[in-house]
Amino acid sequence: MAALGQGAILWIDAVTREMTLFAALWFVVGGIDDLLVDLIYLGRRLRGGRPGPSALAGPVPAGRIVVFVPAWDESAVIGSMLRTALERFDHPDYRIYVGTYPNDPATIAAVAEVALADARVRLVVGGAPGPSTKADCLNTLWRALLRDEAAEGFVASAVALHDAEDVVHPLELRAYAHGLIDHAAVQLPVLPLAHAHSRFFAGHYLDEFAEAHGRALVVRQTVGAGLPFAGVGCAIRREVLAQLAAMRGGAPFDADSLVEDYELGLTLASMGMPARLVRVAESPGGPPVAVHAYFPDTIGTAVRQKARWMIGIALAGWDRTGWGGWRRIGDNWMRMRDRRATLEIPVLALAYLSILAWALSFGAHLLAGTSPAMPSAPMRALLWTNLVLLVWRLMVRAAFVGRVYGWREAFWSAPRIFSSNIVALLAARRALLVYVHMLRGQPPRWDKTAHRFPDLRPASN
């Protein structure tokens, strides 16, 4: 029995070492990958590559900007969003098109109430019941725009995209108009709003977007990779959308895509018309012109949203968008980074299991009265390397979070790595199940979450 017990302990030790080695090796690869992005960003900043401010105070370039807002089951927020946009937008010529579904009377009524009071809001009711996909709703809005252009004798200059829960920035239409002079499409930073009651699950979006829109998108442009849209806070020249529509049988947005915004940015890059990230201060030394919104604040809603992103980018998106060609090294590198979740999630799960395995190994040795197994010298060096890369990663993330949200949120960004990992692990499981159903022929559907719009009324004394 003693021999059997000792054999079991040796087996536990061996499995623990192999799990730890496998996870540690992959974490080093990922850490070096992230470090290269950091170094490119630092190099760009040292060369004075920080974007300068646009002349937003100057004359606004002529042309009507049309804002597309797809809305399914958004009666709780769409009215407030539209009224806020109408009050805030500082632009002489714009119109907001809101796409709804015939089987969503509450949302239709909420949009109609605003549209009756302000002709700049256009209610569009699709012909088929919802939900379909967000891209399908956007195509309905595109067809409505074409009908209005023909009937009223105008041609829009650009189309901007927003969601029903977005808090628009007063200067964003001006930023689009100036940015689209030299670029086919532009993307503004997207900055999630902090939830007072959801420090971790809503808070991890603050960390991810502060770093993604402050660092990752900047590096994508530096290495010549296609810039994926965030789905909101972006604008495309009208003639560019017309070219896409001509390529796709009259519909510029791919209705079969779950992440039409991500794919649209890569498609424009492949056409030689890449989007551009526009970071401009709303005033000298002030915060950037950016779009704000509440993101999911519970583990369940965060998992649903992250699962949809994983399906669209790392699973189905891999099949749909492929690679950028062997000469486009930077673009392929960024696409590989986008798809790292397919490798990172199993490794992450294995890493947590290895921690449990080490605890089991120490406990077994303690009960047996034997010396616990210790990592070898090469293993210790590998683990120390991982620790250094992790500390560096947390410091970089805290720096970007602090720049946008202040030192308190920067402090919380470190422990929030655990809530981010939990959401990622659960989202991966959901994404795989949904993707299997899609492979069996199930059509993609708009798997949205309930939204919330902030109370922007001034506090009463």
Describe the model.
The protein is built from 14 helices and nine strands. By secondary structure, the protein is an alpha/beta fold. Strands 3-2-1-4-7-5-8 form a seven-stranded mixed sheet, with helices on both faces. Strands 6-9 form a two-stranded parallel sheet. The termini are far apart. The model has no long low-confidence stretch (mean pLDDT 87).
Name the features.
single chain, seven-stranded mixed beta sheet, 461 residues, alpha/beta, two-stranded parallel ribbon
Summed up:
Helices cover 56% and strands 9% of the residues. By secondary structure, it is α/β, with parallel strands linked by helices.
Structural topology:
Layout: H1 2-46, E1 65-70, H2 78-88, E2 94-100, H3 105-117, E3 121-125, H4 134-152, E4 158-161, H5 172-179, E5 185-187, E6 190-193, H6 203-222, E7 234-237, H7 238-247, H8 260-270, E8 275-277, E9 291-294, H9 299-321, H10 329-338, H11 341-368, H12 377-405, H13 407-412, H14 416-439
Parallel strand pairs: 1-2, 1-4, 2-3, 5-8, 6-9
Antiparallel strand pairs: 4-7, 5-7
Helix pairs in contact: 1-6, 1-11, 1-12, 2-3, 6-12, 8-9, 9-14, 11-14
The succession of helices and strands, N to C, reads HEHEHEHEHEEHEHHEEHHHHHH
Strand order of the largest sheet: 3-2-1-4-7-5-8
Q: What's the number of helices?
A: 14
Share of residues in strands = 5-15%
- Which percent range fits the helix content? 55-70%
What structural category arises from helix and sheet content?
alpha/beta
